[in-house]
Write a structure and sequence with these properties.
The complex is a heterodimer. By secondary structure, chain A is mostly beta strands. Chain A has 2 helices and 13 strands. Classes of the chains: A mainly beta, B alpha+beta.
């Protein structure tokens, strides 16, 4: 089976367009809210790139991004998440989500999210419904488990977790992990049932400002079970360790 | 009784619907008052000389223009929101008894407003857009007409957006129609503020994304090692886990810090050293005003004893201290008597010790004195979280019992007050309120002002009690061990070796004017979620909440319970907050009251002026994040 090829630039362009739309609507809302006098309902827009990095392993090097943007007030927010790997002209593990987000009552630090996930990259495209939570678990753990559903009763799951450990006020170590689970194999996307893949890393960043922090680190990416077989068949490594360098940036 | 209350209601609606009538009546009041002022022989004789870097305007009519203005406090040029081209705006000097008119012209490209903080006036003149008036549109000129029925040190600021943070504030001094109780040879206005080069919208947005954005004192590996050395590894681990479990930070003292703020004294940076002069031996009155948006200042002048004589514009029994904490919007008048021919440093450090405002009192221009080092940074404790040993043992059941017992004590306190004060109907009216109405705004306590007998209006007994607070997106903590802590100066001050003012030291010089016990009690919890940066009352931010209804003429006790880990200066517009410091009739009148973490504070309010009044935390970003309610008196 031949995979459709999506150049990396297209994905980046799509992301950029979404962010621009998001920002434009934010500006409009801000103008409207300043008209209502006593206490306007504030709306905010933030764009965060947790990972924007080069990874150099033994055999190959690739580019990785993992970012998100949100727009809204305290109660209703629109989220956009996007992540992918780029090696040469090939984009893999491209995952882009558009989610509605709101706080979960009775919980202090967790939001519920629901929406659409699109797997768009050089492999065949998949669309999923997404539902999950995202927030702060005790001990400052950022924790985001999400469940995905698509036609044919296929189910997928993802857990993302990370934590900031402050060495000093500006030197910060961030361990991070992302796990993906699937109910069924999806060979064209090199996805296997059960725990399919894990991406884990530890990054040391220096906050020049709160919003700009270059970092260095180490990342490990591996596939398991059938997923491991799929990549092995295509002649790619089942797992790889890499040195990472990049920029943590938000606005 | 019933008839009285009807009468009150009727007049209330007359007042609120007929602004002109109010103004006319105010004018009559003002005229009477000002004649009294002019006939007072001591007034001009005791008028002290004064120097301040801000322009001073005095009189009965004022022309103010609000416009963008280029400033440079940090080495970078920025646009500020200025009044008559200056930041702070000019110091306004009013006279008690005058009818003051202030014409404000808006030269901005967006609406503006000026609120007269602590001044009791008709609601339409209070200057809160959307509540008491429509705001001042770009290009528009609005004339405030204010019958001045009080004296003391106050200030004014914008109530529109974040204009207060960008420079729209100034000192407001109301000279009394009688000589000061404590005469002085000279006086200086000391207006403290916090300036940032960053757009306040950006600050607010940053706090929403990362509440610790401006906190550069968070717990680190280094601070953990330090704690382990000091208290032992076990204690350090336990502390760290305890805060971690709640996702809170003991270093959470100030939301916005010296990381972005430059602290100003009379619009001068610490480096430019604002200097006020004195002649050795003179008694100097300092009108200290905190016009900052977010900063609690700990104020002292090393080498000088501060005699506190006024709090929030109201005279108090003189108290000698070395230092006092001043929340945003609070004012204190202190008298100092510098004896030596030298300079003394005016030192006001931010509560989180991330910076300070500084100036000098000097015998000659150019003199300066050493700047003291800042004190150790305070940290929040489990007490601030409202976790005391008692509550740990028996949890909520115990808390409920305590609450009830305290309330009963409060009520008894109120009752005994009634006995102490003699109500004299014949001499009850002060000279200014010669009108027939029994629901004129009550006068400020002062020499020759007697308690006034007011009818007890009938109020709806079915007051909606607020639902119990629950943890959730708007509530990250419920304090179990709440306590009255009026005899504590606050985090970072208690036990510092200096005499520091506490609210328990504030005893009004003159008895209050309304001797009635409160008819009812309204308890409000100060709540919030630091991580989400949402603040509110009773677990609800402004947009989710209803106004608080008060009957015109009623006397009510407001009980504030702080469930959050931060101090909140709570400001009620238009009406006095008679802080229950335990002195009965001599409880001090305030307009802004600090509620410390896990503290319960109560004050009495006489709802003598109709209208919609703002009631909010005076930390600007807390207010914008929802810690705001409307109190409607009708």
């Amino acid at each position: 089976m031949k995979a459709r090829r999506y150049p990396a630039s297209n994905c980046l362009l799509a992301l950029l367009v979404c962010l621009v739309v998001c920002h434009a609507s934010a500006t409009l809302c801000a103008q409207q809210s300043s008209m209502s006098a006593a206490m306007p309902e504030h709306r905010f827009t933030h764009i965060l790139l947790d990972q924007f990095e080069g990874r150099t392993g033994v055999d190959s090097s690739e580019l990785r991004w993992d970012g998100e943007a949100w727009h809204g007030g305290d109660t209703h927010r629109l989220w956009l998440k996007s992540e992918a790997f780029v090696h040469g002209a090939t984009v893999s593990d491209g995952d882009h989500e558009l989610l509605y987000d709101r706080p979960v009552s009775r919980f202090r630090y967790f939001d519920a999210q629901a929406g659409l996930r699109m797997d768009i990259d050089s492999d065949p495209t998949r669309a999923w419904f997404a539902v999950g939570v995202e927030g702060l678990a005790p001990y400052h753990f950022e924790f985001a488990p999400t469940l995905y559903l698509r036609n044919g009763g296929r189910v997928a799951g993802r857990i993302v977790s990370m934590e900031d450990l402050l060495l000093t006020q500006r030197w910060i170590v961030q361990p991070e992990a992302e796990l993906n689970f699937y109910s069924q194999d999806d060979a064209p996307r090199a996805v296997g049932s059960g725990l399919s893949d894990l991406d884990a890393g530890i990054r040391l960043r220096y906050e020049i400002t709160r919003k700009i922090a270059p970092y260095l680190g180490f990342a490990w990416n591996g596939r398991f079970g059938d997923a491991a077989d799929f990549v092995r068949q295509s002649g790619q490594p089942v797992h790889q360790s890499s040195f990472v360098f990049g920029l943590f940036v938000w606005r | 009784m019933n008839g009285d209350s009807k009468k009150i209601r009727k007049q209330g609606s007359d007042l609120s619907h007929a602004q002109r009538a109010i103004t006319r009546r105010g004018f009559v009041l003002g005229a009477v008052g000002s004649m009294a002022a002019w006939s007072s022989p001591g007034w001009s004789a005791t008028r002290p000389s004064s120097e301040s870097s801000a322009t001073e305007l005095r009189g009965q009519h004022f022309e103010l223009t609000v416009a963008e203005h280029r400033v440079n406090f940090t080495g970078k040029q920025r646009m500020a929101t200025a009044v008559n081209g200056s930041v702070p705006g000019p110091t306004l000097r009013w006279r008690e008894g005058d009818l003051v008119t202030v014409a404000v012209t808006n030269r901005l490209d967006r609406p503006t407003s000026i609120h007269w903080h602590g001044i009791r006036l008709p609601a339409e003149m209070d200057g809160v857009p959307g509540l008491s008036f429509p705001g001042i549109a770009p290009g528009e000129r609005f004339v405030y007409r204010i019958p001045v029925l009080q004296r003391g040190s106050y200030w004014y600021h914008s109530h529109s957006g974040f204009q207060e943070q960008t420079g729209l504030y100034g000192a407001l001094v109301v000279e009394g129609s009688r000589p000061e109780t404590m005469p002085t040879d000279r006086e200086h206005v000391l207006l403290l503020s916090d300036w940032t080069d960053t757009n306040p919208e950006t600050i607010f947005s940053n706090l929403k994304e990362q509440s610790g954005y401006y906190n550069y004192h968070r717990a680190t590996v280094g601070s953990f090692v330090h704690a382990a050395r000091e208290q032992g590894l076990h204690a350090a681990v336990e502390q760290s886990l305890m805060w971690g479990r709640m996702n809170m930070s003991p270093s959470d003292i100030a939301d916005v810090s010296g990381a972005t703020y430059t602290y100003l004294l009379n619009g001068q940076t610490p480096r430019s050293n604002w200097t006020g002069l004195f002649r050795p031996g003179e008694r100097v009155r300092l009108r200290v005003i905190n016009g900052s948006s977010m900063t609690f200042f700990d104020f002292r002048i090393p080498g000088l004893t501060l005699t506190v004589v006024q709090a929030d514009g109201n005279d108090v029994q003189p108290v000698e201290v070395d230092e006092f904490r001043l929340a945003p919007a609070e004012t204190y008048d202190v008298i100092v008597q510098p004896g030596e021919d030298r300079a003394y440093t005016i030192f006001a450090q931010a509560e989180d010790r991330s910076g300070f405002a500084r100036g000098s009192l000097a015998a000659h221009p150019g003199q300066s004195a050493a700047i003291p080092p800042m004190d150790p940074r305070p940290v929040r404790t489990m007490t601030d979280m409202g976790m005391n040993m008692a509550s740990m043992k028996s949890m909520r059941g115990m808390k409920a019992t305590n609450d009830t017992a305290d309330m009963q004590m409060n009520m008894e306190d109120g009752m005994s007050k009634k006995g102490e004060i003699q109500i004299d109907r014949m001499t009850a009216r002060p000279s200014v309120s010669t009108q027939d109405s029994s629901i004129q705004p009550l006068p400020q306590p002062g020499a020759g002002i007697h308690p006034i007998a007011l009818p007890v209006p009938k109020i709806d007994p079915a007051h909606r009690a607020s639902a119990p607070l629950r943890l959730g997106p708007q509530v990250d903590n419920i304090a179990d061990g709440v306590d009255a802590r009026l005899n504590q100066a606050g985090d970072g001050l208690d036990g510092n070796g200096r005499r520091v003012l506490t609210y328990a030291d504030l005893r009004a010089l003159y008895p209050g004017v309304d001797p009635r016990p409160p008819q009812r009690e309204i308890t409000l919890h100060l709540s919030g979620n630091m991580e989400r940066y949402i603040w509110g009352f009773d677990g609800k931010k402004f947009s989710d909440a209803h106004p608080i209804q008060l009957a015109l003429g009623e006397r009510v006790r407001i009980v504030l319970v702080n469930d959050t880990m931060m101090e909140h200066p709570i400001h009620l517009h238009g009406l006095w907050s008679e802080l229950e410091t335990g002195y009965g009739a001599n409880n001090p009148y305030k307009h802004t009251v600090i509620v410390k973490p896990a503290e319960r504070v109560s004050y009495l309010v006489t709802a003598d002026t109709p209208g919609k009044w703002a009631f909010h935390c005076h930390l600007l970003y807390h207010m914008e994040a929802g810690m705001f309610r409307v109190v409607e008196v009708a």
